[in-house]
Specification:
5-stranded mixed sheet, Immunoglobulin-like, alpha+beta, disordered C terminus, 256 residues
Length: 256
């Protein structure tokens, strides 16, 4: 299919979830739908994941001028699968065009970037119990191996340190929620944060890192810059407890 063009920009595997994005278009045909087919060696079964399509890609449109279908070729991969990740044997983009012609593109497995998830010691027992109740023994085995290799972060790099850190700041607090994909939203965040810091605010910037599928919190002030990891370690774990000192009030929120 000489007139078919495609690319996979990123594909991240975190536990039993894929996240990725890329683009695909035909010079003369419109894509009707697209799925990710996941093959498993152990059971010889497959799992289908519907993808979000028709995303605008200005870079692709500029690289292929004159093709209307190159203006909206983007697709996004996000979803889980039912079997262990280490049994995946193949990944394929499958779909069809408006005239009914099928499309099938094989994705090399070496394009997948696996992300290891580490759990703090206080969170791992609850995580292990949930896996046992769900019967995911293979997953529990691999997570336990990662747990044994885990080295706790320093207190200043932990979510538990956030209340203490904020209590030490003299001025008001503002917060912005963003991602790390670039573009206008990131530029707006940087400008907004700079103005707040100049006015004496301490700015909390919560962002989602696509490369690791985790959240990161940046705390910045006129004489402060701290990066907090570990926010996704356990869904039941939070930095604020009844024994924690109460931080200053949050006076402004901007979300883009």
């Amino acid at each position: 299919m000489d007139k078919l063009h495609w690319a996979l920009d990123s594909l991240v595997l975190r536990e039993d979830t894929f996240f990725g994005y890329g683009w695909l278009f035909h010079e003369e045909k419109t894509l009707r739908h697209l799925r990710l087919e996941i093959g498993f060696a152990a059971s010889k079964a497959t799992s289908l994941m519907d993808l979000e399509c028709d995303k605008p890609r200005d870079d692709v449109a500029a690289a292929y001028p004159g093709h209307a279908t190159a203006q909206w070729p983007g697709y996004m991969i996000f979803g889980g699968f039912p079997q262990p990740a280490d049994t995946i044997s193949g990944l394929t983009l499958i779909g069809s065009f408006d005239d009914g012609e099928p499309v099938r593109v094989e994705i090399p497995l070496d394009r997948v970037t696996p992300i290891q998830v580490r759990y703090p010691r206080s969170a791992f027992p609850g995580h292990a119990w949930r896996l046992l109740k769900r019967g995911k023994l293979r997953r529990l085995y691999w997570d336990y191996r990662m747990f044994l290799q885990y080295t706790p972060k320093s207190p200043a790099d932990s979510p538990d340190y956030i209340p203490t850190l904020l209590r030490q700041q003299p001025g008001p607090i503002a917060m912005v929620i963003d991602h790390d994909l670039g573009g206008g939203a990131n530029r707006y965040k940087e400008q907004w944060a700079a103005e707040k810091i100049k006015a004496g605010f301490t700015v909390l910037a919560l962002s989602f890192q696509v490369a690791t599928l985790t959240h990161v919190l940046t705390i910045q002030g006129q004489e402060l810059a701290v990066l907090i990891h570990g926010l996704d370690s356990d869904p039941n774990h939070g930095p604020l407890t009844p024994e924690s000192p109460t931080p200053p009030p949050l006076v402004g929120v901007a979300a883009r």
